[in-house]
Amino acid sequence: MKYLCLVYCEGKEFDAMSPSELEALNKESMAYDEDLQRRGHFLAAEALQSVESAVTVRMRRGKVSTTDGPFAETKEQLCGFILIQAQDLNEAIQVASNIPLAKLGSIEVRPILDLS
């Protein structure tokens, strides 16, 4: 089965990190992606730009409306994702628990709905 691991983090956590700490976190994250690839779990992963660069799009009564950023009352924002292959939810949770950013934020694990 496929699972999407949505990575949430607080921007202030990154703002408080030194350039060398950020570089170390990036290297750790890339190494984990490579490890997942070797073990057959990795399908795709991307980091996202800050929430300030986001646009929310809605279609209502045939009209498109856009607003800057998401409307979120939470401190944690979506900052990236990893799409993985796992045998079941328990294995997906195990994979997600080792994502380096889980130490700073949270990982939402969600099964992919097969529409075929």
Q: Work out the helix count.
A: 3
Structural classification? alpha+beta
Total strands: the figure is: 6
Strand order of the largest sheet: 2-5-1-6
Secondary-structure element order, N to C:
EHHEEEEHE
Shape assignment: flat
**End-to-end CA span:** 13 Å
The CATH topology is what?
Alpha-Beta Plaits
Could you estimate the helical fraction of the residues in percent?
Answer: 25-40%
What portion of the residues fall into strands of 2 or more residues? 35-45%
Count of folded domains: 1
Give a short account of the largest sheet.
4 strands, antiparallel
The residue ranges in which pLDDT falls below 50 over 5 or more consecutive positions are none
How much is the radius of gyration in Å?
16 Å
Mean pLDDT figure = 92
Looking at this structure, what is the CATH superfamily? Dimeric alpha+beta barrel
Can you walk through the features of this model?
- The protein has helices spanning 11-15, 19-38, 89-97, and strands at residues 2-9, 42-47, 55-60, 63-68, 77-85, 106-111.
- With 116 residues, the chain is α+β, with helices and mostly antiparallel strands.
- It has a single domain, classed as Alpha-Beta Plaits.
- The relative contact order is 0.32.
List keywords for this structure.
116 residues, alpha+beta, four-stranded antiparallel β-sheet, 6 strands, 29% helix, flat, two-stranded antiparallel sheet, 3 helices, Alpha-Beta Plaits
Present the secondary structure layout:
Layout lengths: L1 E8 L1 H5 L3 H20 L3 E6 L7 E6 L2 E6 L8 E9 L3 H9 L8 E6 L5
Antiparallel strand pairs: 1-5, 1-6, 2-5, 3-4
